[in-house]
Design brief:
By secondary structure, the protein is an alpha/beta fold. It is built from 3 helices and 9 strands, in the order αββαββββαβββ. Helix 3 links the parallel strand 6 and strand 7. The longest helix is centred in the N-terminal third of the chain and has 15 residues.
Length: about 200
Amino acid sequence: MTVRLDKLQAALEAALGDKIKHLKRERGEITITVDAAHYLAAASVLRNDTSLKFEQLIDVCGIDYSSWKDRSWDGPRYCVVTHLLSVSLNWRVRLKVFAPDDDMPVVASLTDLWSSANWFEREAFDMIGVIFEGHIDLRRILTDYGFIGHPMRKDFPVTGHVEMRYDPELKRVIYQPVTIEPREITPRIIREDNYGGLH
């Protein structure tokens, strides 16, 4: 495995050069991070370079790093992570890019390179709020049309902002402010020595 990773790392460094901001090897995988300005160009090299041949985009997801590992995060808040596969060379790489502006997170769309990026980027837009510049149909895919906010952001309330219910008097679905009372649930602890017949 180490020889294959060495070969992949050498090919990545030769093809991408100074576009690689950070390269990390962990658990038998390589993750490369590039600047947002080089994201589309780096992805194009990963797909087209004959020494790499990443023909398939497997996944794209968004991450909110605002409180990474229960600590404060120093750096851009929103990251897009792309997983690529080379079927012909039998290797994978993870490509990361951070949106430079936390108030308006924008990165390039990869839909022109891999059509499979379409729905993944729509999901990252819907859940995290990353805007994919150049995407031909960037709209919500999992939440309702009138949904406000991005539910996978760490500052989004667990209960949401509005709830939807059917109103029998109006005979239609209505939206209203959330009526759930926040409460702390403490689990019931049973301290019997012979609970459940165990001795």
